[in-house]
Amino acid sequence: MKSLKKNDIMESKRTISVCFASMVAFILSASLLVTTNASSQTKASQEVTVAVSTDPDTPDLTAARRIHMSLEELEKRVQALEDVEEIKKLHQHYIDLMDHLRYEEVLDLFTEDATSEIRNFGVKKGRKEMAEIYLGMLAEKRGSKRFDSHMAIEPDIIVDGNTAKGTWLIYIFFSKPEIQWVQGKNECEYRKESGIWKISKLKFTRTLASDPSQYP
């Protein structure tokens, strides 16, 4: 009886050990493993290994998919993602200011040498010429009371260092003199100055409308 109990205890210990080992192996295979080449002298030569298990039932690292990249490349990718989000916020801020008729603040979102082209009013360069559009034509036409609203969707942004290009699908909804809508496109260029993204080029083209006379 004592011998049986001892065998039972030994078998239980072996079972626990096997389960524990399997659990550790699974956790390791499902985790992101980062290894750095300590012998490297430069950041560019440091290497990151990301292991992602392709089969949750197979805790073997040989079944994992590995992606190798330098730390420098990883930092660039993360920075590019952050820049895209900052540019999205910038453009949405532009749309919000346009909706609320705050044209002086709209101009502050552009670089000093920026250009803008709104429909068929020609290309305007620099703050002085752009003010003719935003503080002149748009302000006079829209007045001090809102009767329209803008929507910017489907951004497609490509970042290249401190510059970027992007396109947006634009919708404008009017409540006066009757309910109408206009579809358009923003084609933009952006530039980061002193760590802040600004618009360096903006072109707006109408592409469709509920009333055909409202475009282009």
Approximate shape: globular
CATH topology of the largest domain: Nuclear Transport Factor 2, Chain: A
The CATH top-level class label of the largest domain: Alpha Beta
Oligomer designation: single chain
Give the integer mean of the pLDDT values.
Answer: 79
CATH architecture of the largest domain: Roll
**What value does the Rg take, in angstroms?**
29 Å
* Cross-sheet strand order for the largest sheet: 4-3-8-7-6-5
Quantity of strands, as a count: 8
pLDDT under 50 segments (min length 5)?
Answer: 24-54, 60-65
Summarize the main sheet.
Answer: 6 strands, mixed
β-sheet strand percentage: 35-45%
Number of helices: 4
Structural class: alpha+beta
Order of helices and strands: HEEHHEEHEEEE
Query: How far apart lie the N and C ends?
Result: 95 Å
**Fraction of residues in helix:** 25-40%
Q: How would you describe this structure to a colleague?
A:
With 216 residues, the chain is of the alpha+beta class. It has two domains: 2-70, no CATH class; 75-214, Roll (Nuclear Transport Factor 2, Chain: A). 37% of the residues lie in helices and 37% in strands. The chain has four helices and eight strands; from the N terminus they run H-E-E-H-H-E-E-H-E-E-E-E. It has helices spanning 2-30, 71-99, 103-107, 126-142, and strands at 47-53, 64-70, 110-118, 123-125, 148-160, 163-174, 180-193, 196-209. The strands form two sheets. A six-stranded mixed β-sheet has the order 4-3-8-7-6-5. A two-stranded antiparallel ribbon has the order 1-2. The longest helix has 29 residues, at 2-30. It is globular, with a radius of gyration of 29 Å.
